[in-house]
Amino acid sequence: MRNFKQLALGTAVALGVGLTGAMTTAVQAQDANYVPLLTYRTGPYAGSGIHIANGMHDYLKMLNERDGGIGGVKLVTEECETGYNAQKGVECYEATKGKGALVYNPYSTGITLQLIPKAGVDKIPVLSMGYGLSAAADGKTFPWIFNVPDTYWDGASVVIKYIGEQEGGLENLKGKKIGYIFLDAGYGREPIPLLEQLSEKYGFELLQYPVPGAEMQNQSSQWLNVRRDRPDYMVMWGWGAMNPTAIKEAVKIRFPMDKFIGVWWSAGDDDAAAGGEGAKGYKAMNFSGVGSDFPALDDIKKHVIDAGLSSTDAETIGGTLYNRGVLNSVIIAEGIRTAQELTGKKVITGEDMRLGLEALNLDEARLAELGLKGFAHPMKVTCDDHAGSHPVFIQEWDGKKWRQASGWIEPMTDLVRPLLEAAAAEYAEKNAPWPARTEPCPN
Amino acid sequence: MFYREAGQFKTSYKADQALMPILQDRVGLAVILIIAFAVIPATANDFFLTSIMIPFLVFSLAAIGLNILTGFCGQLSLGTGAFMGVGAYAAYKLTSIFPDANVIVMVLLSGVFSAAIGAVFGLPSLRIKGLYLAVTTLAAQFFLEWCFIRIPWLYNYNASGAIEVPHREVFGIVASGAEATPLARYFIVLGITVFIALLMANVLRGRIGRSWMMIRDMDIAAELMGIRPLRTKLMAFAVSSYICGVAGAMMVFFWLNAAEPSSYSIRLSFQILFMVILGGLGSLSGAFMGAAFIWILPVILKFVPGLMGIDLAAETIEHATFMIVGALIIFFLIVEPHGFARLWAIAKQKLRVWPFPY
Would A322 disulfide with which of A15, A55, A356, B265, CB 3.0-4.6 Å? Predict the structure, then answer.
């Protein structure tokens, strides 16, 4: 009992200390730009999340070490662990927003959805790079949300276009069967409206195989159905542990891997490697550079990893998801730089950051200047278009690493854009009174 | 010495039957309510309100709901998360069908739907008991979660499959949606939680509560004494699900603002069950203590290393929190299997006899 008393006392003291801590953590660095990073290195999605987190962290750290930050002002980053859990994500958001946060990268469609209405109220933009709500690409309705370079609907249209190319033209899709295996959450269901519309337009049959999040490591029943239905192509919208499992299962049922195409989030090196030799030929969309052959990545290696400032395993530099994280940080950094140029301030606010992101123009010259020539397709954000429907390429797994398997493929913007606008209008109507855009347009 | 009822004479039946016959209890409750209604709103920052107090109150209410079923009526349930989800989806549908109605009324009404569904899934409890009943409520959990994913009408055919809370005003104050201030949301959640908790404290010591406890302690004896198991058990399921439903609706309306079906998964059911077990089965104050332990402690533990000047990576803190909380759960269950409520009762006894323990 005595021991217990001491322990109870200890717990009480720890609690008290913690409570006062929670109250006083709002320390804001006066002469730095603060970027919170909502990451997940734990839980079932950590396999994908760690690489992204490393990429985001390392690039910003490298800017601090090499250039002393952006525009002479250091960046302060802070990671907050969300575990891909929406409740924890909101907790992270609330804990960090008071410290002068410039932009949020939730890396979860669920968290993004919760932050969308808050962004305009708290005046902090959300950068959901290639995920989140597709409709948010409509900058007139969603001035605070950015999803450069592509929405899921862009991605879905690219997949169908690519399959059409393989078959010798979109008109040959008639009568074909395309299977769609997806994580049964907001993320995986997002592309379905577009895929259904395309299936009607081009006359292919869309077969859906939802994978519940709790059972993503056991997909045998879904793949049994795939074997029975014999689709001509399989398209996958997976994340975390779902990806390697799906690829293993596909190998097991001897599905032709060159007809299996994943979204850019199913493009991890570990995902494909899980399939072993059999995964050779697996394809995935991508919009961030393949490999580590870029001067900026060499700088990361030199200034951050060799200096022991990161937990990144040097082997993983250049992996798809690592590079994705780097690209995310490039967009953040360029947003800050643009905002500094536009406002003339060095230490900026969330509102300035919004202007910077909206005026973002990452052209080829700038990419080359950053040491990332060819790392991404040039991106330009406008006030109307916060995604930009930028082209995507297909990469192929050769059994050891990814290599680019196609040129840049343009999404079917003419089809996607009206759908996006309709969805944005619907969102605004459902969430009435949705605030009308009053934010100034920088370009 | 500090907690001695000697000298407090009751001169009427009313005084003897009061909810809290002992003066110290009344003072204690008054202090807690003053802190909750005045001190916290006046001093706390947004983070404390939105990430600690609001979720704590929501989980406390859910734990009260489950405690009624499991702690007071003895029916083990693993479907709490789903019943909370029913409340959330019902409130969402109600407020989209009647956009001008008072959102607080809608939240309170939504519990009726989860009560009805809870009663239906409570039917097997008449034939099966204990762990077997847990399995049938587990079926409710999976079935309802499936409904939240598969019936698009429930989420108004949103492409994202999530429910997003619209902007609603109550008496000119924004009550839900992104513009709602944390303070307004805190007061609504606090008001509903305190109201239901006091109501339940009264119900539990009356005829209904006692009939639940009779069923829990020995259902055959209760039946022989004229308690109808069908009505009593189903009522426990309905009341419990009502409270869980209201908690679930508050969770999305006043805390999260948007919810995916995965927010109401089996994880949540277990979370609430652990709160009830740790807090103490069959105790209302235990529900609050359990919720505080499971929700507030991990949030606070995250700040401890930073405060002590130790720079740890976010994921290390997460892992450490996981282990510390897990170890503490095991520790407390070994020291006192009846939960915090029992520890508190022991503490009260010690205060009573202090400084001359015998």
Answer: A55
Contacts of B261 in chain A (CB under 8 A): 185
CATH assignment of the domain containing A350: 3.40.50.2300
Same domain as A156, residue A146: no
CB contact under 8 A, B160 and A423: no
Per the structure, the count of domains in chain A is 2
Cα B185–Cα B190–Cα B191 angle in degrees, nearest 5: 100
Q: What is the ipTM of this complex?
A: 0.80
Q: Are residues A334 and A345 in the same domain?
A: yes
Whether B178 and A118 lie within 8 Å, measured CB to CB: yes
Report pLDDT digits (tens) over A378-434. 988 988 888 876 899 999 998 888 988 888 999 988 888 888 888 899 888 877 778
Nearest CA in chain B to A111: B258
Residues, chain A: 443
pLDDT in tens, B109-165: 999 999 999 999 999 888 888 889 999 999 999 999 989 988 889 988 877 778 888
Same domain, A111 and A193: no
Give contacts of A110 with chain B, Cβ < 8 Å.
Answer: 162, 258, 260, 262
Q: What is the DSSP string of B282-328?
A: T-HHHHHHHHIIIIIHHHHHTTHHHHTT----HHHHHHHHHHHHHHH
Same domain, A141 and A157: no
* Domain span at A356: 29-150+291-383
Q: Cβ A90–B256 below 8 Å, yes or no?
A: yes
Q: Which of residues 114-153 of B touch A (CB under 8 A)?
A: 149
CB contact under 8 A, B314 and A95: no
- Domain borders along chain B are 52-353
For residue A285, give the 3-state DSSP assignment.
Answer: strand
Domain B52-353 carries which CATH code? Answer: 1.10.3470
Please give the Cα distance from B288 to B347 (Å, whole number). 17
pTM, to two decimals: 0.86
A194 and A92, same structural domain?
no
Query: Are B257 and A114 an interchain contact pair (Cβ–Cβ within 8 Å)?
Result: yes
The DSSP line for A373-390 is: TTTS--EE--SSBSS---
Structure tokens at A178: 């395309």
Low-confidence spans in chain B with pLDDT less than 70:
1, 358
